[in-house]
Request: fold
Amino acid sequence: MKRILIVEDEPNMRLGLKDNLEFEGYQVELATDGKQGLSEIENGDYHLVLLDVMLPEMSGFDVCKIAREQGIKTPIILLTAKGEEIDKVLGLELGADDYVTKPFGLRELLARIKAVLRRGNDLDADTKEISIGRMWVNFSAYSGKVDGEPVKMSHKEFEILKYLWENRNDTVSRYQLLEDIWGYSEQPTTRTVDNFILKLRQKIEANPEDPQVILTVHGVGYKLLHH
Reply:
């Protein structure tokens, strides 16, 4: 269960957010001022923080700034009644992951939370080795190993594998790969995609002739299975 910290001094907003997020299946903890919020961020194990900007004791901007200076990477979404662009820019420069201006709709906030949590998962994958088939991959280092031995892979192969990983268990079309990996400036064909997938399977699959990790979805594209 994902744990979310809400740092908000206004009681109705704080409790309303808590009720709605718990209804969505999140575990929620509360803090009512900046100092308490910073202490929770420093000592708690949270997947995400909803941090109001205008707080007693210490502003949300200061909380965010100090947390990031300490190397804390917990995703932070700032909440504020201010709509000025300079506040938004300042918040993001201080290390916030997103910014929602009050009043906001619950559906919008939930979408932002899910997006930031998804990015957080992908960041985790970036900074450590993950197992994909018989290969261990570190995307940040652009390195792969099979049976402890380094595997040679091109930059494009890493990009395709990372894209499939970020969309794991979902079908990705050949055209999505062409657009998002190669872009419109180059003119590869869908056959180009298929050739790269064959190369990846030779490194990842126990039996490339009978793939169990990168599956072909006939007429559409590919799906990377990960449990």
The CA atoms of residues 1 and 25 lie 7 Å apart.
